[in-house]
Amino acid sequence: MKVLHIDSSILADASVSRQLSQAIMTQLQQKHADLDIEYLDLATQHIPHLTGEILMGQNAQQTALSEKLIQQYLDADIVVIGAAMYNFGLSSALKAWIDRISVAGKTFKYTETGPVGLAGDKKAYIASSRGGVYGENSPADFQEGLLTTVLNFTGVTDIQVIRAEGVNMGAELKEKAIADALNTVKAI
Ligand SMILES: Cc1cc2nc3c(=O)[nH]c(=O)nc-3n(C[C@H](O)[C@H](O)[C@H](O)COP(=O)(O)O)c2cc1C
């Protein structure tokens, strides 16, 4: 079983989303003996922003990188994404990854009845961390909302969000938010 594990927080060892995504991976490894894991640390493995040149296939090196990222995403049976909320959205590094894998004809296609995802048949876990408290479907949430929409657009609808929020609202709340999220992970 192939797992694509992505981290995108800029906060290294202090990152909450990295702690959660790692806990999800540990849980998955306990459940499945045969995991074939690919790890992308977007804070250190820098994906250049999409440019017109890259989009038009005029940069061979970047075309190869885009193709590798798309194939990795298509091949995965499970995707685990550590997604921090930065300025109501995702880290720019994770957005750069999204821009590379959201490609018509590869991960979705346009049809007469609308777009159809081509990367379904996989399970996604989103390890979400937020300084404030938003709950679900907040109009100020361009983080989980964007990521879920993109995954859905590529056909991935089986998504579980593991969320620690309010982590910048005092030590007690942070500790509780992380403990609750880690408890949810144990039930995976
Ligand atoms: C650059 C930056 C921007 C942030 N923007 C927000 C924000 O818009 N809303 C919020 O609730 N928390 C915000 N935070 C707090 C983070 O969401 C919180 O620290 C979370 O734990 C980040 O995930 P990480 O620990 O995995 O990096 C921000 C933090 C940073 C460093």
Short descriptors:
188 residues, alpha/beta, Rossmann fold, 5-stranded parallel sheet, two-stranded antiparallel ribbon, 6 helices, 7 strands, globular, binds flavin mononucleotide
Shape: globular
Proper CATH architecture: 3-Layer(aba) Sandwich
What is the rounded distance between the termini? Answer: 16 Å
In total, the number of domains comes to 1
Could you tell me the number of beta strands?
A: 7
* Radius of gyration, CA atoms, in whole angstroms: 16 Å
**Percentage of residues assigned to helices:** 25-40%
Strand order of the largest sheet: 2-1-3-6-7
CATH class: Alpha Beta
The class by helix and strand makeup works out as alpha/beta
Q: Helix count?
A: 6
Mean of all residue-level pLDDT scores: 97
Any low-confidence stretches, pLDDT <50, length ≥5? none
Q: Bound small molecules, which ones?
A: flavin mononucleotide
Strand content: 15-25%
CATH fold field value = Rossmann fold
Classified in CATH, the superfamily is: Flavodoxin domain
The major β-sheet equals: 5 strands, parallel
SSE sequence, one letter per element: EHEHHEHEEEHEH
